[in-house]
Design brief:
Elements (H helix, E strand, L loop, with lengths): L14 H7 L13 E4 L12 H17 L6 E5 L6 H11 L4 E4 L1 H5 L3 H18 L2 E4 L13 H10 L5 E5 L10
Parallel strand pairs: 2-5, 3-4, 4-5
Antiparallel strand pairs: 1-3
Helix pairs in contact: 5-6
């Protein structure tokens, strides 16, 4: 009688999955020009923030710790370059004991619609493999064309991730379906 166990079968794993299983911390080769992953060293206490913003970030972290998840939460950090948007995201990541996957949003935005979908899926997979939160730089580069479907596609990908995702930009922006 033949065994139906998968242990008797051979399987082929994608090279990125194999490298991850062997604790290779580098991102997928296809993402090298678009994303990096690191373990943040900065804490919320290290940041120079207004009391209001510090309280909001602390509430977010506390909610995440109590609820055990912040799935579907996407935050937009708006401000001029150098004001600390990435640093604030890194501090939240550290508070949640997670790595931070930083995406070069302007570079991804320059890709074709088909390549964008592939990159977004790879970024989501990489975030899951690393247990990382996503920080998408220059999100507003996707907002030039109101009919561009890529921002909505990106939200679908980010909302499916288990932790908060961070978008950053210099333009004032609010999603069309904001509460």
């Amino acid at each position: 009688q033949r065994s139906s166990s998968w242990l008797g079968s051979s399987i082929r794993l994608e090279s990125r999955v194999v490298r991850f299983l062997f604790e290779d911390d580098a991102v997928d080769d296809r993402l090298q020009p678009y994303a990096t992953v690191d373990t943040p060293a900065v804490s919320l206490d290290d940041l120079v923030l207004t009391d209001l913003f510090r309280g909001q970030l602390s509430e977010l972290a506390q909610y995440a710790e109590q609820a055990g998840t912040t799935a579907g939460l996407v935050l937009y950090f708006q401000g001029a370059g150098g004001v600390g948007k990435r640093t604030a995201a890194a501090a939240c990541s550290r508070k949640l004991d997670r790595q931070l996957l930083t995406v070069a949003g302007r570079r991804v935005a320059a890709s074709s619609a088909e390549e964008f979908a592939t990159l977004a899926a790879l970024i989501a997979r990489e975030a899951r493999l690393h247990g990382a939160l996503v920080y998408w730089e220059d999100f507003d580069a996707l907002l030039a064309d109101e009919d561009d479907p890529r921002p909505a596609a990106l939200f679908s990908v980010l909302a499916a991730l288990p932790g908060p995702a961070f978008l950053s930009g210099t333009a004032t922006w609010e999603p069309a379906d904001a509460p």
